[in-house]
Design brief:
Layout lengths: L4 E3 L2 E4 L4 E6 L7 E7 L6 E7 L4 E3 L7 E6 L4 E6 L8 E8 L16 E2 L3 E6 L1
Amino acid sequence: QVQLVESGGGSVQAGGSLRLSCAGYGYSPYCMGWFRQAPGKDREGVAAIDRDVITSYADSVKGRFAISKDNAKNTLYLQLNSLKPEDTAMYYCAASWYAGRRCLGRIREDYNVWGQGTQVTVSS
């Protein structure tokens, strides 16, 4: 059974950077994604990457975040640059096997397996 484990979260000042990792996705899912959830808000799809290395991003993070993966290491990454206080949230990685390219729409229901999350806090 696939287990996803995120790491790399932390506390940074505005303008800083972090790199999140998600290990353990095993046999290649069609799509991997990063989501985030701030207190009192819905879970938001931040970035996704499919097996053809096609990527998609939420408008709020375009040009600042970059998703990548290393299939040899079964590890997904999210590089977070130019962080803002509004990026503060719990960040989750997720895998999608059955939605096909629809997964690039970053809809929560298209993802089958989730990690436990890693907290990112950005202070002003």
